[in-house]
Amino acid sequence: TLAYWNGSLLPLDEVSVSPLDRGFLFADGVYEVVAVYDGRIFELDAHLDRLARSLDAIRIAPGLDRAALAAVFERLAAEAPRPAATVYIQVTRGAPAQRSHAFPASAQASILAFASPLKRLGRDQQQAGFALVSAPDIRWLRCDIKSIALLPSVLAAQHAAEAGALETVMLRDGLVTECAASNVFVVKGGRVATPAADHRILDGINRRIAIRLAAEAGIPLEQRDVAEAELRAADEIWITSTTKELAPIVRLDGAAVGDGRPGPVWRRLRDAFDHLAGGPAEL
Ligand code: PLP
């Protein structure tokens, strides 16, 4: 696998990172993941915007401008596996000479990027739908920053894996926030709701796509607080992310969602999404 590492292109397993890198010692960095469909990057501008916001929020200067960052993505996407792949990029505060918590006086940001194959959720799996489990949201209050400090998300994802579920939906103060690595939508009586994009969630790029597609289809959608009770009473639930795209949920903590099958609102948006992605996933 080809990697970008601080200005060089080299095989991923030849990248060597300093043990003093603040990404390693403090998780002091941010990241992005884009999808690549047949060599074409999906929504690159939106991901570059979000990367810039994350970097600003934790005051890292990446040392590459937007065009140079875009070129890194494009370079890795060009050789990415087909038909579908992701490109991961992370920027850390670099490797100063000494470990200390406050920002170092001088350290160049470290930038790592590489592509991986993306196994899209298959059409058969989508038709069957997926399970979701719930857990308390134990994260900090700047979930709008795409930080590489992901321990609560790691634990939530493991909770889902051990339950045989696709994702864990997280609950804070009686409200739905989001999943370990995806956003959540609920449907009741044909109306869609999703938590508003504030400090409690990451504003997902596919979340925004779903919101736009709903608007284009004339489907009413509100961005607002979503109570746990609404989640449990929903006709439909689906989740969105770069890697899971738009995935229908048919079980929540073991109970059926609606009639236990993917719903009509999800179906409409899924078809519209596949159109944007250049076609549906394989069976
Ligand atoms: N929420 C969290 C916490 C995430 O980590 C992610 C993506 O990894 C998402 C939501 C979905 O964001 P996107 O649609 O941009 O992939």
Automatic annotation (TrEMBL):
Q: Does the keyword Transferase apply?
A: yes
Q: Does the keyword Metal-binding apply?
A: no
Classification via Pfam families: Aminotran_4 (PF01063)
Q: Which UniProt keywords apply?
A: Aminotransferase, Pyridoxal phosphate, Transferase
Q: Where are the transmembrane segments?
A: none
Q: Which GO terms describe its molecular function?
A: D-alanine-2-oxoglutarate aminotransferase activity
Q: Which cofactor does it need?
A: pyridoxal 5'-phosphate
Similarity remark: Belongs to the class-IV pyridoxal-phosphate-dependent aminotransferase family.
Name the chain's protein. Probable branched-chain-amino-acid aminotransferase
Species this protein is from = Inquilinus ginsengisoli
